[in-house]
Write a structure and sequence with these properties.
Largest sheet: none
Number of helices: 7
Number of domains: 1
Shape: globular
Radius of gyration: 16 Å
Distance between the termini: 38 Å
Helix content: 55-70%
Number of strands: 0
Strand content: under 5%
């Protein structure tokens, strides 16, 4: 489990992450724990108002498909989730577009910030710079 107090509804966050990063569907419990720890740690450093706004957006995204599909976001298949998010990322409302892109960034951060993902894609950045590669 992620650290207590993870600011976003977990089932919806996971559904969002799988729509933004399809490879996330293959994560095991440890992988999800790491990803959620990265995202939770980042959000903990943000003001409480930002955490509340992110949580509100995630909850609203979970409810929005009820209007069109009669199901919550987390209950939709990945293709429908992705189509919904793609439509919202181009919405005429700037605040909504920013929110979707922010959630996308959190999903990428959680997935690719894990050491296992960094190794899998060959990411070798080091705080010591290029000298560390020799």
């Amino acid at each position: 489990m992620p650290a207590a107090g993870f600011p976003l509804p977990l089932p919806v966050f996971r559904a969002l992450a799988e729509a933004f990063v399809p490879e996330a569907a293959a994560l095991d419990a440890r992988g999800w724990e790491e990803a959620e720890g990265i995202v939770g740690g980042f959000l903990a450093s943000r003001p409480a108002s930002v955490r509340r706004q992110a949580a509100l957006l995630v909850r609203l995204l979970d409810l929005l498909p009820l209007v069109f599909h009669g199901r919550r976001f987390r209950s939709l298949d990945v293709a429908r989730r992705t189509r919904l998010l793609e439509g919202l990322q181009d919405a005429p409302v700037l605040l909504l577009r920013r929110g979707i892109w922010g959630l996308r960034t959190l999903a990428f951060m959680g997935f690719y910030g894990r050491a296992e993902a960094a190794n899998a894609i060959g990411y070798r950045a080091d705080p010591r710079g290029w000298e560390a590669r020799q």
